[in-house]
Amino acid sequence: MPRYFANLLLLLAGATWGAGFVAQSTAMDNIGPFLFIGLRFLVAAILLAPFAWLESRKAAAPVSTAHLRGFALTGLVLFLGMGLQQVGLLFTTVTNSGFLTGLYVVFVPFITLLVLGQRPHPVIWPAVLMTFIGIWMLAGGSLVSLNNGDFLTIACAVMWALQVILVGRYVGPSGRPLTLSFVQFALTSLLGLCAGTVVETVDLAAILATLPEILFAGLFATGLAFTLQVIGQRYTTAPQAAIFLSTESLFAALFGAVILGEQIPALGYAGGMLIFIAILLAEIGPILRPRPAS
């Protein structure tokens, strides 16, 4: 798959996540955060199960135990990221949550460099900085005093960065993007349902009232978007993927304006343009200026 097409899939994943942010923020009016996580990922796992099975049938060899462990680790990190974000939204504003979650675009290249020893293409660093500033501008250019919810969301951003890196590490060597997606969905669902039944109230009427958000988040913001992420990351780097996926903040602001009637300030439009320029830089820069051969 050409790299530009893989990056287009990642951009579509970011757009779908942005639309899902509306459902994610309204679902907790009726049910707890962990129950919502468990149910949305259960829907996604059921949706993806037959495709993962077909992928396994067509594979030349069974997936290795080492790769399955990597898939499970990715699912654990995904659950921690989702849990921290959902619980953080109970204590902080949507503006702060969107901005602080977007910090993963900054964390990915640093973790890649410090932990894995892999140097990103030099053009990634200014693109990361532009993306970070763009997300800050989308958030209105200011943050209120940090509270416990904000710190939970910062921890969530670290988990998102690790999830992006783990996907990039295991999806290529395993050649099983749908299996990876299914394993991380199923594990996240199991952990979310277990946590939800222990610490939250399970009310069937409340679940039925939240069914539209559960189905949208499960089918599109989870099943479709995370699978697009896994497929796209087979053909690009983790730092570049983080930049394209971070457009979630841009699309969340746009869908919030269209669906919820939220207003986007002029500074927010400028931030969106800066993110778009960063995407072009990440896409075109490595082509115009290839990394010198060692």
UniProtKB/TrEMBL annotation:
Pfam family, one: EamA
Keywords carried by this UniProt record: Cell membrane, Membrane, Transmembrane, Transmembrane helix
TM segment ranges: 33-54, 66-85, 97-116, 123-145, 151-171, 178-199, 205-228, 240-260, 266-288
GO cellular component terms listed in the entry, alphabetical order: plasma membrane
Residue ranges occupied by any EamA domain in the UniProt entry: 6-138, 149-281
Membrane topology per record: Multi-pass membrane protein
UniProt subcellular location: Cell membrane
Predominant place of localization: membrane
Keyword Zinc-finger: no
PANTHER family hit by this protein: EAMA DOMAIN-CONTAINING PROTEIN, OS03G0707200 PROTEIN-RELATED
Protein name: EamA-like transporter family protein
